[in-house]
Prior knowledge:
The protein is an alpha/beta fold. The chain has 2 domains: 249 residues, Aminopeptidase, CATH 3.40.630.10; 67 residues, CATH 2.40.50.100. Helices cover 20% and strands 31% of the residues. The protein is built from 6 helices and 18 strands. The protein has a 10-stranded mixed β-sheet, sandwiched between helices. Strands 7, 13, 16 and 18 form a 4-stranded antiparallel β-sheet that branches.
Amino acid sequence: MTMYEPSQRLHVSQFRVDDFPAGSKTRLELLIDGLPDGRPLVFSTVMVRGKHSGKTFLVTGGVHGDEYEGPVAIQDIFAELNPDTLSGSFVAVPILNTPAFVAGTREGGWDHQNLARIFPGSATGTISERIAHAFSKFIVGQADFYADLHAGGNVYRIKRFAGYAVRSPELNELQRAAAIAFGFDLVWGTTALPGRTLSAAGDLGVPAIYVEMPGEGRCRPEDLEQAKQGLRNLMALLQMVEGTFPTEPPKYCFETLGEDAGHLQVDHPSPVSGLFVPAVDVWEPVEKGQLLGQVRHPDGTVLAEVPSDRIGRVLFIRTLPRVFAGEFLVYVLEFPDGVN
C-alpha cells in the first residue's frame, strides 16, 4: 500500500509565501496542533508561485465538512495552473476544517462547533478555535485577495451566488467587482458579520468574497465547472492569468444591510419535529403567506404548515426531510425596490 507523503511539512507559524521560489508548484502540510487521538491537525495546502510578480490569491474550501464543490474545484485549478505563465501566487487550502470533513458533518467532529462562527478563534481553545486562530493569524494576512468557497452541504440546497461583506468603499469596490467577475447571476452584499472567514480577512484589510454552490452533499460536474470557471475569472481580474470575465452587474446585484442580513440559518425555523415536505423549490418566487411546506408526523398527520413571512425568492431550502424543532427550513430572499 502506498502511503501519502506531502512534499514538506512545517508549522503554520513558519509559513511564508515569499519563502517559496518563483516558478514552483508545491503541496505541503501546515501543522496547527495535535488531535486527541494523536494524529496531527494540519492544513493540507497547495501553492503555485508564478515566475512573474503579481498578486497573492488565497482560496479556501471545506470550512464546513460536508461541502465538496469548493475543495474539488481548488484541486483541479491547482493541477491546471502553469507557474511559467502565472503572475503572482495561488495559495489554497482545499479543506480548511479537516475534523468536520472526516466526520462528514457541517461542524467539527471533535467539538461540534461551527467554524464559520468563531473567527478569529483562540490559540488555547477548542480544536475548531485553534483552526480559526491559525488561519486568522498566520495565513489570511498574506493575501492580496481571498475567496472562500461554500455550498449547501448535506442537508440543504442553495441558489448559486457570490457574496461579500460590506466594508469600506475601497474594499467594497474590488469585492463587488470580484463577486460580479465570478460569473453567477446573483451577487449579494450584506452587513459584515463577526466570526466568519471574511471577518478575519476584513479585520486585516484583505478584500474577500464568498461563494455558495448548490450542495446536497454532492459534487455535480456542472457545479464543479461553474466553480472552476469562477476561480479562473478571479485570477483574470487580478491579472494573474490571461482571460476575460464579467464586468457588468447581473440582474440580481444588490446589498442588504441589517443585523441578520446574510445569516441564512435563522429563517423559517420548524415549529415541530417530523418529516418536512417542501411545497416550493430553489429560486421560486413566493408571496407573503404562501405555503413553503408542511411538517408531518410519521403517520402522515400534518403537524404544522409553514407560510412565507415575506415576498421574495427561495434562496435556500432543506432537502433532508427529517427535521427537529427549531431547525430552519427555507430562506426567502427579499429584494430591495427596483429588483424583482
